[in-house]
Each structure stands twice: as C-alpha cells, then as structure tokens.
Amino acid sequence: MHVLVVHNRYASAQPSGENKVVDQEVALLRGAGHRVEVFERRSDDIATMSLLTKVAVPLRVPWNPAVRAELAARLRSERPDVVHVHNVFPLLSPAVLAACADAGVPAVATLHNYTQVCPPGTLQRDGRPCTECVGSSVPLPAVRHGCYRGSRLATVPLAVSLSANRRRWWSGVERFLCISAAQRDVLVRAGMPAERLVVKHNFVPDPDARRSDAGEHLLYLGRLAEAKGVRLLMTAWDELAASGGVGVPLVIAGTGPLEAEVTAWAAGRDDVRYVGLYDTAECQKAIARSIAVVAPSTWLEAFGLVVVEAMAAGVPVVAAGHGAFVELVEDGVTGLLHRPGEAASLASRIRRITADPDRNQEMGQAARRRYEQGFSPGVGLERLVEEYRTAIAGRSALARGGDTHANRGDGDSR
C-alpha cells in the first residue's frame, strides 16, 4: 500500500505525544513493507521566517492556498492509495483536504484531540472541563474567553478555521480515527457523522525495559501544564508528606509552562526529584523502575500515551477517572482511578498503590496483558491497514456510483 502522511510537527522545545505517534506509525507501516511518504511542515520553522511571513501565519491558519496547490501536485504525480492527515495547525490548514479532493485520493484523519469542536482542542477553560463550543457552528465563547494561549486575538484564527471548514472536514474525510471511545462519544454528540468515526487506539512499541522488581519511585512523565494535573499532583503529594509520606520519592520528568514552579517546589526536598526532559531511552528506564506512573490530568484526555507506555512495561497507573483513562485503566485491576480534580482522592490512591507490593505486582502483570491484547504494534498495524482499506473501498464505490466531490460538499470554489 502507498500512503502519504500529512502532518504539521509541533515545536521541538516541548515533548509531543502526537509527533511520537506519527513517527511510530510511519515506522510501523514501513517495517511491514508499505511505501510511506511524508508531507509535512514544522512549527520550529516559524522562528526563522521573515517578519512579514510571520505576520501572515495566523491569516493562513483557516486556509493556505499554497499548500493546496503543492500537495495536489504531489498527489497527482505520486498517486498514493490513501492520504493520512494528522495535525494541520498552523502551517498546513484544512486546504490539504481540498488537495485530496482535487487529486481524487481518499483521506483518513486521526483526531488526536478535540479541535473539531473546540478551537484549542482541550475541552477545558480555567482548569475546568468546558463544552460551551461543542455543537456550535460558530465558537464565539472560545474567542470571548481567549481560550487559546489566553488570547482572544490568537484564538480568532482557530475559531474561524473551525467554523469555515466544518463542512469540509465532515464530508471530505472518508474515515476519522478516534483514539478512544470517550473521544468518539463527544464528537458524535457534537454532530459529527457517526458512520465515519471509528475507534483506533494508539499503539506503543514494546519497550526495551520492563519492570522486574517492586519499583523504586512514583513517576510523573509529561508536559508540565495545568491541564495535565501537575498542580493537583503537587497538592496531593504535600498532603501525603504532611501525614508521613509513602516511603518512596516522586520523580517528575518533563518540561512546560509550570517548569519554574515545579523546580521551586521540588528544590531542597528528599521526597521529590525534578529531572527535566528525558529522551525516549531515559523515559523507558524511568517507567520500568516505577512503582506506578501517575496521570492526574484535569482535562478530558483523548487518549493517554503515558498510561499505555506504563502498561507495556508492566507498571500500573494512578489516573484521573474521566476521559479516555476510564477505558484504558480497569480500576483495581490494571491500576487505580481517582476522582478528577480532587487532591485528597489522588493522595489516597497513591498511598493505596504503594502500600501493597504484592497487589501492585499483580496489577502490573494485568496491565502488561492489557497492553498485549489492545495496544501492541501488531494490533495497531492491523487496525490501521483495515481503516485504510475501508477508506479506499469507500472512495472507489463513490466513483463507480458516479458521485462527485462537489455534490458530497467537499468541492471548493475559492
């Protein structure tokens, strides 16, 4: 199969689970003998642009005609079987869908977050879940509240793109790959075409390191941001420390907007170690040495890559009991779920998962089995190829039936 992957890479200064997923899928497909090419832009390139070009970037978020022309020409010359779209913000834009229509190539899109119904894609505002824009064709609340980076001006291009391209997305993509059932439920309730929304969980490569003993620390691994529950974790850990602690340290690995706050909080403490940003090998080793991995996100995670990475290493997790975590973690079997946003509940689950080493080992083994059954490379490859074939067959059936892009609503008059 010949696949063209379309992706706007996130800035390299911050760890990106989405970049990781895209790279791993490309490697998986190539390893299985498929021909995979990549059409990409890099957010890192914005820093090297001229001032005039930088100013124009927000204007092209809703629509980038140059990208449409470039991609359409490439599709006509290379004739891939299917295009797999990931992130298109900020340098690609939904114009990639028009390029696919121009060339008559079916498109599949992985939905890594909630940008189809929420301009910043988080379904969160001021640290709390928010669905004000869900189901609305014009997301004015997001602009009013400045939901993207706390700025109304920065939110406008995303809101315009969501509103202007809503119909194009929903009609121009053969298969939307949701990364959890929880995400799919939200999108169906928002009015997206249910028949095109399927669940295909992200896979995780089998790690080089697995847990072989009881573990030596608790681990938070991820972006240091409010939405990831970092402040909630610090509050819960302080509560535990005030009552005598749990006998092992908390290791925090990652970077992000709360890095200075985390650094100051951890300074001078024996029960906390902030280690900065780990590379892939260091992440695997840190997970394998964990009693448990903690994922206390306050926003509704669409998936939770670190949770599955822990499972792959035979390590249980303590996770917030909402969003995708509810389907990834079987409470009391492969890990523990805490009440979302409640520090006392998080603290009690951390104490519980460290108090019984034998039960912890059993949960780790169950987590590993869950990984093998649902999130291994073999499972991921099978599901991915299946959806590609479905998309190709769907577009072929439309062509035989004499349907056109225009009467499906994904033509373009610009």
What's the arrangement of strands in the largest beta sheet? 2-1-3-4-7-8
Q: What class do helices, strands and sheet pairing give? A: alpha/beta
Number of domains: 2
CATH superfamily of the largest domain: Glycogen Phosphorylase B
Outline the biggest β-sheet.
6 strands, parallel
- Straight-line distance between termini: 32 Å
Number of helices: 16
Name of the level-1 CATH class of the largest domain: Alpha Beta
Order of helices and strands: EHEHHEHEEEHHEHEEHEHEHEHEHEHHHH
Mean pLDDT over the residues: 93
Shape: globular
Low-pLDDT residue intervals, each spanning 5 or more residues? 403-414
- The CATH architecture name of the largest domain reads 3-Layer(aba) Sandwich
Q: Classify the helix fraction into a percent range.
A: 40-55%
- Which fold name corresponds to the CATH topology of the largest domain? Rossmann fold
- Number of DSSP strands? 14
Which strand-content bin applies to the residues?
A: 15-25%
CA radius of gyration: 22 Å
Which helices and strands appear, and what pairs or packs with what?
Blueprint: E1 2-9, H1 17-31, E2 35-42, H2 51-56, H3 65-78, E3 82-85, H4 95-103, E4 107-111, E5 124-125, E6 128-129, H5 140-145, H6 152-172, E7 175-178, H7 181-189, E8 197-199, E9 217-221, H8 230-242, E10 250-253, H9 259-266, E11 272-276, H10 280-288, E12 290-295, H11 305-312, E13 317-320, H12 325-328, E14 335-338, H13 343-355, H14 357-374, H15 377-400, H16 405-408
Parallel strand pairs: 1-2, 1-3, 3-4, 4-7, 7-8, 9-10, 9-12, 10-11, 12-13, 13-14
Antiparallel strand pairs: 5-6
Helix pairs in contact: 3-4, 8-13, 11-14
